[in-house]
């Protein structure tokens, strides 16, 4: 299929990231030929690349602009899509996938260079960014996420090109908020360009080291565990077969804590030697994985979310079974109250030997014992030592368990969230928002509300919404903006479009207070967060 002026993410980032799959891309020589055929009508050939190459890689051709940037797979996908939209590039889906793979492998980011900014790739759209540079916040991060900038590398000349591109593409940028109160162009060129070139340079030691490092294979058997807001803990096994050259296939077999099956199949691909992306189907629902592999290939960390509803997802950690690895991946739940009995699930690889939960915790019953999963019923003494302790199974370590006697406070997570109206015959679906109640115990000094309070974990709570302020109360936002699931903490916004039942027939936007309540003994605890219910998200690129 030929694509001309089509914006791949018009109907959502899921469509754009799907452009990275199916997996099998053409050979390296094919990618370079695609550049010559499709890109050199505007870009020029500059000879051989000076960028560091991986072991066994030949010196790559160098092209103007293209070879002077490094980006994530999503970043390269956006660049190619922009060429289609703004410059009339005609390229097939398969050729675009081939280029993204080629460019991300040769001109990507080292693992250290994505640290602290992976939330953008993992679609954590309720992340509240904070940067030391107020100028960066006002010049760059006022229109899109700061992470989009931080997930690319350029020399000073290319950062300067980017400034001119912004001014040429969006001429009103100087007259918008935080632009019209200053010499925007002067600040961008004279202050931001040197700052960005220093902080995010094209060449770096970590990139050079990563390019020359041996890249691990991610094929093998994995144990995974995670937690989903509104659903709870999940764990299971994941099999990855295939290779980087031919693409990967994966199969998941697992379950939620309530016993609901969690299984499916899909395809995956590895970019830059550690960036795992996969599309899979879980019980008829299309889902996506955005994980980062550890440098030795023994762990995967990231987020898994619905393809059409990226707000619905879970944090995932996975541990590869090397045959000799003895390690605990997680303990679910990761807390127990002194004097109470509950079930604990220990997930890991090759769990052999005696299970130890530390002093004052007795194992009442072993409900299931396998090499990768142990399910036990345990009781904590009423006078059990409080605080964190290590869980071991023989020589296997890595498990943590928090023992507490009372909950001192709870927090709503996320503390600030955005939901979006949708549907009602339109092409844009609703964007829900899910909340969790994070419980905290008094510090070891017995005093609550101090810096040494101990995090217990996410605890079941009851949920409701209230008007955030007097304006929200007057507009009856709690009636019109949507509904909160009292048990799961998931807010479902109302339909899009004008509502004749509202004052002035306005839409179903709202400003709400999210309230979590739980009872611990004789104490009732409450916490509040804020939820903005707003209009549809029309522009939804892979990197927000």
Tell me what you see in this structure.
Strand 29 and strand 30 form a beta hairpin. The longest helix is centred in the middle third of the chain and has 16 residues. It is globular and about 75 Å long. Helix content is 21%, strand content 37%. The protein contains 13 helices and 32 strands. An eight-stranded antiparallel barrel has the order 7-8-9-10-11-12-13-14. A four-stranded antiparallel β-sheet has the order 15-17-20-19, with no helix packed on it. It has a four-stranded mixed β-sheet with strand order 16-22-21-18, with no helix packed on it. The N terminus is likely disordered. It is of the alpha+beta class and 544 residues long. The chain folds into five domains: 108 residues, no CATH class; 78 residues, no CATH class; 101 residues, Quinohemoprotein amine dehydrogenase alpha subunit, domain 2 (Lipocalin); 78 residues, Immunoglobulins (Immunoglobulin-like), CATH 2.60.40; 126 residues, Immunoglobulin-like (Sandwich), CATH 2.60.40.
- The first-level CATH class of the largest domain is given as Mainly Beta
Flag low-confidence runs. Answer: 1-18
Estimate nothing, just give the exact number of structural domains: 5
* Number of helices in the DSSP assignment: 13
Using the CA coordinates, give the radius of gyration: 25 Å
CATH fold assignment of the largest domain: Immunoglobulin-like
CATH architecture of the largest domain: Sandwich
Shape: globular
Q: Could you state the oligomeric state of the chains shown?
A: single chain
Strand order of the largest sheet: 7-8-9-10-11-12-13-14
Question: CATH homologous superfamily of the largest domain, by name?
Answer: Immunoglobulins
Overall residue-averaged pLDDT value = 91
Largest sheet: 8 strands, antiparallel, barrel
Helix content: 10-25%
Briefly note the structural class of the backbone.
alpha+beta
Bin the strand percentage: 35-45%
Number of strands: 32
Q: What's the end-to-end separation, in Å?
A: 27 Å
